[in-house]
Predict the structure.
Amino acid sequence: MIYSDKTTEQELRRGGYKLTTQRRAIIGTIAGTQEHLTPAAIYERVHRKHPSIGLVTVYRTIDILAELGLICETHAGGSCRSYLMRRPSGHHHHLICSDCGRVVDFTDCDLEKLERRLAKETNFKINGHLLEFLGQCRECSRKQKEQSRLC
Amino acid sequence: MIYSDKTTEQELRRGGYKLTTQRRAIIGTIAGTQEHLTPAAIYERVHRKHPSIGLVTVYRTIDILAELGLICETHAGGSCRSYLMRRPSGHHHHLICSDCGRVVDFTDCDLEKLERRLAKETNFKINGHLLEFLGQCRECSRKQKEQSRLC
DNA sequence: ATCTAAATGAAAACGTTTTTCAATTAGCAA
DNA sequence: TTGCTAATTGAAAAACGTTTTCATTTAGAT
């Protein structure tokens, strides 16, 4: 319950959706971690506490949360689809550890200049971008070092 | 046969892979368009000319081409996986028209400064990034204008 | 021309996502 | 509170997309 559980629930209702036990559990799960979770991972965790909740409901809830812009979809890091609770800020991007999946947000991408130039050069009307950095967080690179020392 | 068919074929062999009719056809298909094609789209096009080539072979060839770095994988634009023949340049990114799928390359992303800053602030060892711009190309926005005029 | 490892196609297996449908439930009205 | 209704749910099946398996074929070296 680190982030905006309550806010997310309010937004759901504002969007005209009912607030069910299942949806609450799913929101709590996504909000309760910094990792980006695949639908299957969300299901697994939710299912542990509430064995009656089905995978279908997870998919349906994800769709709604994404539609309302309450979660972010990431692409990098192997899996095609994984989700994060949207942080308070608006436009932002992710720095992802490809080992442990930890995600750090950053907001200032400073791509406006590039965007303007591209638009001018190509005659495109640009309406968005996808930016993710991939790397290794401190803990993981430390672990790796220790392991290589053992050889 | 716009781009580097021949080069691609040479690279394949250099990688220790045999140059079969099927692979030639698949490479020709990807190289013959500027669009980014999903595996299914590649199969459909290849299959039209060579009905005996199976979808499995398309997948296997894609894997090899990606492994050798001869094609690029894109994520934006709805589909989870789609491919483009790699242009002559090395590191580059894509500007994608979300209507027609046209892809324009650009090389200078100028993210080094941001990358260095992020690395310093987060203690991450950053080893790559994913950047795609999404928009509407001139033709598509023109078409849209015409259509809205009809209403 | 012959040989062999690599590559292929078809079918089956597998994992993920969506659809269908009958049963249940949240949120509102009385 | 109680009942009503449309929204939501779970289970099963269908629909996809991707990978594996295996017998057959073929590229490329000899």
About this structure: The radius of gyration of chain B is 18 Å. Residues 18-21, 38-40, 55-56, 59-60, 80-81 of chain B lie near DNA strand D (CB under 10 Å from a C1'). Chain B has two domains: 1-88, 89-151. The mean pLDDT of chain B is 82.
